[in-house]
Amino acid sequence: MIQKTEIQLSKTKLLMMLIGSALFVGLGIWFVMNPAEIKPNRETFVSIVGIASILFFGACLLFITKKMFDTKIGLVIDENGINDNSSGVSVGLINWEDISGISASEIASSKFILIETTNPDKYINRANNGLAKRAMKANTKMYGTPISISSNTLKIKHKALLDIIERGYQKMKN
Fold first, then answer.
1. What does pLDDT average to over the chain?
2. Structural domain boundaries enclosing 61
3. 137 and 80, same structural domain?
4. Do residue 49 and residue 126 come from a single domain?
């Protein structure tokens, strides 16, 4: 039997992400409004970078704002599996019987936990929007699984989260 573990969303981490995203949206607006000041003779490139910044970090702003007011628990680990509500591509309950492996990875100092599954399409099809579905398909191509969990929005450090998930997986596997 696995002891139920509930990990709350970290409003402090979310607030820091919100501020950072707002700054990058502002920077993107500045790039679009003043491309010649930033890089003379490369105005088109600067404008494209500005638009990309506005779109990407604007989407981040929307997600983070939504999560700031989310009262659901960020992550629950129990005898059923891992119930993920920590990100914009969360899929809800990941059943233990669907999990075939747990591993960790890192990109540009961002650490995350990969949940390998026997049926990736089951979880990709749960995506609540097209952007999340595309992100999960990209994850599958890069890492072999659509499911990744980060402690970036949770009140827990990466290593502690990885330990809890690995212990739960080992208990359920045995």
1. 92
2. 10-68
3. yes
4. no
Report how far residue 23's alpha carbon sits from residue 29's, in angstroms, rounded to the nearest whole number: 10
For residues 60, 160, 156 and 167, what is the CA-based torsion angle, rounded to 10 degrees? Answer: 80
User: How many residues are listed for the chain in this entry?
Assistant: 174
- Encode pLDDT of 35-51 as tens digits: 998 888 899 999 999 99
∠ CA 144-146-147, nearest 5°, is 110
Q: Is residue 121 in a domain?
A: yes
Answer yes or no: is 4 within a domain.
no
Q: Is residue 2 part of a domain?
A: no
Give the pLDDT of residue 156. Answer: 96
Q: Which residue has tokens 């990744």? A: 148
Angle at 17 between CA 16 and CA 20, to 5 degrees: 90
Alpha-helical segments (H) within the chain: 11-33, 35-38, 43-68, 120-124, 130-143, 158-173
Name the residue type at position 114. Answer: L
Give the contacts of 136 (CB within 8 A, at least 6 positions apart): 89, 91, 123, 124, 127, 146, 147
In a domain, 1, yes or no: no
Cα–Cα distance measured from residue 23 to residue 17, given in angstroms and rounded to the nearest whole number? 10
Is the same domain home to 155 and 78? yes
The pLDDT of residue 41 is: 87
Same domain, 95 and 43: no
